[in-house]
Amino acid sequence: MKKDVSQTTRLFTVMDHMRRVWQNLRPCPDLTKAQFGTLMVLANGGKKPGPEDPHPCLPGRPVMSLSAVAAAMGQSLPSISQRISALEGMGYVERVPDPSDRRVSGIRISASGISLLEQAKSDLGARINAAIDTLGGENLELLLNLLEQFAAALDAAAEEETGGVNETC
């Protein structure tokens, strides 16, 4: 069954608008999304927070190696190193010497980093919740279900088209 081109165009336009809005939604004015994500990784010891873990900061501020942070984020060591240095300069991250090898240091979120992270998560949550409240509970549930179904349908179409190989144009 062939779909109307105007529906496809409208969907593309709405999804592109959503992408731009989400891209511009910053957790706080002091941090980029990448810096915010790095603080989240450090606060959670490399674990991704999920719905079952609504207040994820681990007690004791775990110490991680630079390579562990890069692996947890799926990013290169040089980009993580630059980001950690910037966060350290802002006072949100601190280096911790390894007691067994003084040439090595670990990284952990600082107390001010945790405070900033918690405030940013609260502020961002409030902004997102305000937008969600305009939908109402029933519409939100419908939207989430439809987005999940649509994402699964796009995944299936991509899988069928490429035979499981992730290709770009």
| Percentage of residues in helical conformation | 55-70%
The SS-based structural class is mainly alpha
What is the arithmetic mean of pLDDT?
85
Query: Can you tell me the number of structural domains?
Result: 1
Largest sheet: 2 strands, antiparallel
CATH architecture: Orthogonal Bundle
Domain HTH marR-type: 1-152
Pfam families: MarR_2 (PF12802)
Protein name: MarR family transcriptional regulator
InterPro entries: HTH_MarR-typ, MarR/SlyA-like, Tscrpt_reg_MarR-type_CS, WH-like_DNA-bd_sf, WH_DNA-bd_sf
Q: Any overview of this molecule?
A:
- The protein is mainly alpha-helical.
- It has a single domain (5-134), classed as Arc Repressor Mutant, subunit A, CATH 1.10.10.
- Helix content is 60%, strand content 9%.
- The chain has helices at residues 5-24, 33-43, 66-73, 77-89, 111-133, 137-162, and strands at residues 93-98, 101-109.
- A hairpin with a 2-residue loop joins strand 1 and strand 2.
- Helix 3 packs across helix 4 (77-89).
- The radius of gyration is 20 Å and the shape is globular.
- The two termini are 26 Å apart.
- Residues 1-152 form the HTH marR-type domain.
- Keywords: DNA-binding, Transcription, Transcription regulation.
- InterPro entries: HTH_MarR-typ (IPR000835), MarR/SlyA-like (IPR039422), Tscrpt_reg_MarR-type_CS (IPR023187), WH-like_DNA-bd_sf (IPR036388), WH_DNA-bd_sf (IPR036390).
- This is MarR family transcriptional regulator.
